Amino acid sequence: MKKIFNILIVMLTVSLVVTSCAIDDDAAIEANQAAAKLVSFEQPTFVVESSATTYNLPVAISPAAFGSNYLLEYTVNGQSASTSVTGGQAAQIPLDVSGTGSIVVTLDRVSVVGSEAGAIDQNNKTTEVLIAPARDPDALQLVLTWPDADNNDLDFFLTDVDTFIVDDSQTTSAGEDVALPNSEADGDYRVFVRDWISAADPIPFTILVTHPNGDVNVYTGDIPNVDFQFNEALTIVKTGSTYVITQLDPTVPL
């Protein structure tokens, strides 16, 4: 009888151990199957006033911020960088926006301390911070930007209706700028983007316009890779310090 009792005790102990292991395995499976929080940018572009020198670029985390500290790794105009974020805080990437043109930021990786998991949303991992030209109460200010300035070089022209040049910008920098002063005659004006020499085809570009009253417009488009070809991007109707701008199909050459 004692022997039977001992056998029953052993069987009960084994049963408890197996049940306990099954519970642990289930918990492990649940943890492994938990969806990672997605890290992304909420907008494809952000516009920053040129008066700013620094800008904290917001980063979205869904469904909620991480509870523990984490590291964001990313590239800024192709240069690798990273920033540490305290758990529970909104994610931000600090940027130097003291220059002109645009800054392209791409999320590469998120590393979370602890049991949480994070993944980059591949559909929303890149954004562009556009730096608007400074407000000038006496002129309309225009800036032209484009990606990969090391391999693509565009020029910028502002003309009157007869295509006589009012202002132009033909540098080798990553952006070009022109201005239409309020003192110029009222009437129609034209804005051209010219491909000097480039690798991309087509070549994407962005034009940022700051009005004398501080309003900012953003225009985007593409031009074909045809060296030295002028492509009309905008028309401007000037009345005093008021400017009405119309975007054109920039693939149509001059």
Helical content class: 10-25%
**What is the SS-derived class?**
mainly beta
Rounded average pLDDT: 86
Distance between the termini: 106 Å
| Low-confidence residue ranges | 1-5, 7-14, 16-20, 25-33
Q: So what's the overall shape?
A: elongated
Strand order of the largest sheet: 2-9-7-4-5
- The number of helical segments is 1
- Write down how many β-strands occur, each being a DSSP E stretch of 2 or more residues: 18
Cα-atom Rg, whole angstroms? 29 Å
For the sheet with most strands, the description reads: 5 strands, mixed
What string, H for helix and E for strand, traces the elements in order? Answer: HEEEEEEEEEEEEEEEEEE
Task: Kindly estimate the percentage of residues that lie in beta strands according to DSSP.
Answer: over 45%
Can you describe this structure?
The protein is mainly β. The protein has 1 helix and 18 strands. The termini are far apart. It has one helix at 2-33, and strands at 37-40, 45-48, 54-62, 70-76, 79-85, 91-96, 101-112, 118-120, 126-131, 139-145, 152-160, 165-169, 175-181, 187-198, 203-210, 216-223, 230-239, 242-247.
Which helices and strands appear, and what pairs or packs with what?
Elements: H1 2-33, E1 37-40, E2 45-48, E3 54-62, E4 70-76, E5 79-85, E6 91-96, E7 101-112, E8 118-120, E9 126-131, E10 139-145, E11 152-160, E12 165-169, E13 175-181, E14 187-198, E15 203-210, E16 216-223, E17 230-239, E18 242-247
Parallel strand pairs: 1-8, 2-9
Antiparallel strand pairs: 1-3, 3-6, 4-5, 4-7, 7-9, 10-13, 10-15, 11-12, 11-14, 14-17, 15-16, 17-18
